[in-house]
Each structure stands twice: as C-alpha cells, then as structure tokens.
Specification:
- GO terms for molecular function: pyrroline-5-carboxylate reductase activity.
- It is found in: Cytoplasm.
- Its main location: cytoplasm.
- By secondary structure, the chain is α/β, with parallel strands linked by helices.
- The protein has two domains: about 5-170, Rossmann fold, CATH 3.40.50; about 180-270, Orthogonal Bundle (ProC C-terminal domain-like fold).
- The protein contains twelve helices and eight strands.
- The radius of gyration is 21 Å and the shape is elongated.
Length: about 280
C-alpha cells in the first residue's frame, strides 16, 4: 500500500538515535506528533531503553522499524552505512520515502542499494537541531518528487528552518552550515580568551560574548539589512571597532575563513567519493 503523504498518514522510523536522531524525535513530539507515529533503532540497548522511557517512543530492530514505517530517516554515521543499507534494502516496502541525514553520502549511493524506484531525499542538517534551531538543506534524488520534498520539509521544520538546494550544492552546504556551528564556537572561544587576556574573569567574558553572539544572530535573522550594514552601524569613525576590523583584515581572517570553508567542501566531496568506492 502506498503511503498517503498528503493526509499526513505517516509513521516515521529513525534509524540511529544518536544526538541528531534523538533531537529529531524530540522535535517531532514537541510539534505535536504522537509517539505512536514514531519508532527508532539504537544499537546500544541501555540507550534505547532510556530514550523509550524519556520520550515514550518504541525501539525496534531495523527490519521491524522499516516494515512499520512510511518514512525512514537514516541518521547513522556515514562510515556505518553499509550494513544499515543492506538491512534497509531487504525490509523496505515499495513507495517508502527514505530521508538521509548522513553527511557526504549522495542519493545515488542509497538508490543503488535499495529497491528500484525508491524515493530518496538527502538532507544536511546541523547540530543546532539539538535546541530546535537547525538549518537543514534538502535535495531530491532521482525518484523523489516535490511531494516527497514537502514531507521532508514538514518533518524537519519541527526542529528548525529548511531550504531546498540541488544535490550538486550539498557539499557546499555541508561546508557552510553543516560545519558552520564549529566556526562560530571557534570564534567565540578565541574572543573569550581575548577577554581573559584583557583582565576579565572567564565567566564574565563568556557571558558577554555568548549574549552578544545571540543578539547579533537575532539581528541577522530578523533584519532585512545586509551584514555589512549591521557591521557599519557599530563602526564609528576612528573608534574601537574599526581599529579591531583593521587588525582582522591585516591578519587575513576573511581569506582564512573562505579557505577553511573551501577545505571543508573538498573534504565532503572526498568522503562521498570514498563511500561510493567502498
């Protein structure tokens, strides 16, 4: 029987209940999804039992989870995909939508190991999913339609914002927003260290920077102004900010950041190719 996505008559199986898998389950429950509409797999029995206790969602093995689901979310580590894909392919019902949250893995990899015609949607989320503020990019595989993309978007909308991109752009997305939170954490870490160098207690420096980062992010998201406009509003002539900006430019921070993101993109491409070879 073909799942009726339009009516929301779907049961979602999450294969892999690590941090991202758990965050998705919790977000779906918070958005009003019934626990009976969800099922998950987890290879560590103690963690599976804990999640069932806390979330009220049933745990099962891959075969049992997949045969009961209309949408299967694959949230395992990329290096663990081979055995999962083998079990998934053997149990998958015709018409079931497969949504991959596996970084770097192309839809063709899934399509090659699943029954012919299986719709696959590739997603690059990021760790702010843990606090309901993910940025997820979705791409359609060869057999996925706009309807399938809409199902994935609705599901991921429970844990943040979603954008559609061609799959050819997913490696760039991985480098920019998938790895992006780490760049911000790195910058905040450096700024806290600067505060300590200037004589502030670590706790005070952390409070100052974290709240400043939070406020700046809200301004970026809620304002229609370009980041340059927002930065210039803080940059007075001959003031402290322009002195700091001059040092950042002198040390090549902008060029280093661009190079870093390019390196992340290249690594994402390499990981995808290596998994296809394997």
């Amino acid at each position: 029987m073909r799942p009726d996505y339009r009516r929301g008559m779907t049961r979602i199986a999450v294969l892999g209940a690590g941090k991202i898998g758990e965050a998705l389950l919790a977000g779906l429950l918070a958005a009003g999804r019934s626990a009976s509409d969800l099922i998950f797999t987890e290879r560590h029995p103690e963690r599976a039992a804990d999640l069932t206790t806390r979330l009220g969602v049933e745990a099962a093995d891959i075969t049992a989870a997949v045969t009961k689901a209309d949408v299967v979310v694959v949230a395992v580590k990329p290096q663990d995909i081979a055995p999962v894909l083998a079990e998934l392919g053997a149990a998958l019902r015709p018409g079931t939508l497969v949504v991959s949250l596996c970084a770097g893995l192309p839809t063709a990899l899934f399509e090659g190991g699943l029954p012919a015609g299986t719709p696959v949607v590739r997603v690059m989320p990021n760790t702010p999913m843990l606090v309901g503020e993910a940025m997820s990019a979705v791409s359609a595989g060869a057999h996925a339609t706009d309807e399938h993309l809409a199902v994935a978007e609705e599901m991921l909308g429970a844990v943040g914002r979603v954008v559609r991109v061609p799959e050819s752009q997913q490696d760039a997305v991985t480098a920019l927003s998938g790895s992006g939170p780490a760049y911000f954490f790195f910058l905040v870490e450096a700024m806290i260290d600067a505060g300590i160098l200037l004589g502030l207690p670590r706790s005070v420096a952390a409070d100052l920077i974290v709240q400043s980062a939070f406020g700046a992010a809200r301004m970026l998201r809620d304002s229609d102004d370009h980041p340059v406009i927002l930065r210039e509003a803080v940059t007075s002539p001959a003031g402290t900010t322009i002195a700091a900006i001059r040092e950042l430019e002198r040390h090549g921070v902008r060029a280093a950041l661009i190079a870093a993101i390019e390196a992340a993109r290249d690594r994402s491409v390499e990981l995808g190719r290596s998994m296809q070879r394997d």
